Amino acid sequence: MKKAFTLIELLVVIAIIAILAAILFPVFAQAKTAAKKTSAVSNQKQLGLSVIMYSSDNDDVFPRNDDCYTRSALNPALNAPSYTPANGDGCSGSGPYPWRMNHYSWQKWVLPYTKNVQLFDHPARTKLDTPATVGALRQWTDNGQIMGGFAINLALTGALNTFRRSETAAGRLRNSWLGGTQSAIPSVSEAMLLFEFSNPNINYSPVLVDGVNNPLATQTVYPMALREFWTANFYKTDASCNPTNTVDSSRVSADSIVVGFADGSAKALKVPAFLGRTPTAAEYGVPVDADAKCGISSGTYRPGTTPNLNLNYPFWGLQGN
User: Of 62, 251, 257, 262, nearest to 175 (Cα)?
Assistant: First the structure.
């Protein structure tokens, strides 16, 4: 007579398997998340080194170009011979802008050094391609721009807005208050050059500009070193943009931000560590406007306000007495 499991024995085995699965599945998920974070740190380090190599080849000056190069889109589909931009040259007008090389496509600045577009992708994220409004351009599909992964700190590099603009156009030159060179940064091992940033419309750190729509062609930009602004970006907020104590997992992966420093190193910082390296608005001497409070500012003009630069926050390039 053949022996067989009883119903009770089968139920016990199934229960044991279910218990083990409940224990192990979260562990596997955490291991997968950790692996992606490690990969993101590696990507960030390589990107930082590419920026440094660029500056080494260009008299210590960080990249900040603004120009138009046909068939230069990061999205290869927009470089196909059969593709023609819907409006003009792919760089101006109302868009799309797949062939423009500026701070929205800063990856092109260092692509000759990375030689790999996939390096700009965050392993734990997908590209943000949904338009902000109905009928708006899609960032990856239409503009060939990578949003939702890694961002560059324009306060250190500066930026240009020179393409097809006169030499007297306002904001034509947006110079870093440090001069836009690596050697001018007080502590390169502590200053954030690149970081993980989830925003559907920008892939750079916003900056503060001294003046209201400053009419000068040459402007000075300062870091968006407002703890309140980054708190609103990293934590969930209520209907009035007041932050809660819960990290927003749609914007922050594994409760930490991958940061690339100006010396080429990279590591993941927990959200409190990132915020602790950032001055408050009261310290910085810059008021929190509505956009900053909600964490959505892409750049802010401050009437007659120059930030307090005599602070010891080397994370933002600030290292006063």
Answer: 62
DSSP state of 128: -
Pairing of strands 218-223, 173-176: parallel
Residue 243 tokens read as 């932050």
Contacts of 258 (CB under 8 A, 6+ apart): 37, 40, 41, 44, 122, 150, 195, 196, 266, 267, 268, 269
Rg of the chain, C-alpha, whole Å: 23
Residue 48, classed as helix, strand or coil, is helix
Tokens of 39: 């990969």
Domain ranges for the chain: 9-319
Asked if 236 contacts 243 with a C-beta cutoff of 8 angstroms, the reply is yes
Q: Are 275 and 227 in contact (CB under 8 A)?
A: yes
Q: What is the pTM of this model?
A: 0.88
Mark 202-212 as b/e (b = at least 16 C-beta within 10 Å): bbbbbbbbbbe
CB 182 within 8 A of CB 157: no
Q: Rounded to whole angstroms, what are the CA distances from 40 to 3, 35, 302?
A: 54, 9, 34
Q: How far apart are CA 87 and CA 47, in angstroms?
A: 32
Torsions phi, psi of 208, nearest 5? -105, 135
Amino acid at 36: K
Tens digits of per-residue pLDDT, 222-279?
Answer: 999 999 999 999 999 999 999 998 999 889 988 999 999 999 999 999 999 999 999 9
